[in-house]
Design brief:
By secondary structure, this protein is α/β, with parallel strands linked by helices. The chain has helices spanning 2-22, 140-145, 153-157; strands at 28-36, 46-51, 57-61, 67-73, 76-83, 89-97, 102-104, 107-109, 117-120.
Length: 184
């Protein structure tokens, strides 16, 4: 009985370490559904994900339900292309992928030739419907454009109502790694 309890505890600790290790990944996921104009799913569509900063692209083929999925996507701005013989090529530009994000980018293909392209230029605000996370990501562009004293990102983070700066001598401290306040 004692051996069984020991093995069970060892097994539980291995499982808990595996879940913690997988949660440390910073990369995101881009997924979506490819449909035709009548909202019917299109299988076998070649979907290309292009990183706009590096011009590196990867491709997938949509499944029988028209779904595609790109896992382990580095944060950045992307363009998604979809093409299938007998349909116009469709693309969606300016897709912002954040750390550990889950971005949905659905595309609709119209009947036509591949030489015709449909481009979506203005994109709707992306909402992560698959997560209840209250994560705040500070991007360099946002910090550069905010009227902050000294451009300190910690001052900008304190604008988030969900953050609690604490009490005592560190309540107004904007240098969290400052050695004088380490004991608070």
């Amino acid at each position: 009985m004692r051996k069984f309890a020991t093995r069970l505890a060892l097994f539980a600790s291995v499982l808990s370490m595996a879940s913690v290790a997988s949660a440390q990944d910073y990369r995101a996921r881009v997924q979506g559904v490819i449909t035709d104009e009548s909202q019917g799913a299109l299988p076998g569509v070649t979907v290309t994900l292009l990183n706009e900063a590096t011009n590196v692209s990867v491709f997938k083929v949509s499944d029988p339900q028209g779904h595609y999925l790109f896992d382990f996507v580095d944060p950045g701005t992307y363009t998604v292309f979809a093409e299938l013989t007998g349909f116009k090529k469709s693309e969606r530009t300016g897709i912002r992928v954040q750390q550990r994000g889950d971005v949905s980018a659905n595309l609709t293909l119209a009947i036509g030739q591949l030489s015709e392209t449909i481009t979506v230029i203005s994109e709707a605000t992306q909402v992560q419907l698959n997560s209840s996370n209250s994560q705040l990501t500070l991007e360099r562009q946002m910090i550069d454009q905010m009227p902050l004293n000294g451009r300190n990102p910690y001052n900008m983070a304190m604008m988030d109502a969900t953050l609690n700066p604490g009490v005592g001598t560190t309540a107004n401290e904007n240098r969290p790694y400052h050695h004088a306040f380490a004991n608070d």
